[in-house]
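Quick illustration, no need to memorize.
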Amino acid sequence: MKQFLRTLPLPASGVMLGLAALGNLLQSYSEGVRLVFGVLALMLWACLVCKAVFFWKGVRQALEDPIIASVAGTFPMSTMLLSVYAKPFVGAGAAQVVWFLGIALHITLIVWFTVKFFGKFRLDHVFASYYIVYVGIVVASLTAPAFGMANTVGTAAFWFGFVCLAALLVLVSVRYAKLPVQKDPAKPIFCIYAAPVSLCLAGYIQSVSPKSPAMVVGLMIVSTALYIMVLAKLPGFLKLPFYPSYAAFTFPMVITAIASKQSMACLTNLGYAVSWLSPVVLIETIIAAAMVLYTFIRYGMAIIKACRTA
């Protein structure tokens, strides 16, 4: 077991997030399927907690890397999602404690990451994974309605993430334009570009009232453009050897499908005929499920190989 924990890459938290989000995306098809993905995500969550406990020195050293440190934000994001999964089983009170713990952990990460990596700013240390740190808090907006806090915590988390999104779109885009990523292990991280606008769109729909059709459509246009940009580069990334950064293939695809699905429902409720979005949602859902399952399998194969050769 310890050998497994030792070889488990910290970016596996990104796969965990993708699994938990995919379960929610597929909930309308089957509650049982949702629970299966929730259990898989919970198992990864427990393994990562154990890794942090038994191999804290190695984890702490890994967090000196700006990529690993920023990707670590997927852990509190997953914690927030899993708290909603847990609600029917442990009760609303206990689940809300876990939810607040996830939020507190993410806020701590934002403060620590800002001090550590913006205190001595280097443009070549900026990656699309920075979106996880500052926009990832919007997962609180997605999950807030489950705890009756959409108008308070949910709305506040959305506006914080939205402001950070506006700033980071400029900063991260300048980095990739001026300093293209040369190292193969870091290249798949570009896929995270598809996540932040879609996350903000889904968070807006879930927690902010009243809804503005212009806001929904505007965010949809930008998120779709970024999604297409990522899809265009995805085949090239898939040709690379396996790296833990493959985790970037998961949540961005899932949250885009979730945002499109929720946008269709939201605009329909506002009186707009958007049934044409239905096939778009279906295609995005298929892509999301395929990428999460593919990445999960590749992670499993890599870990098994590492354990055998250790």
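The radius of gyration is 18 Å.
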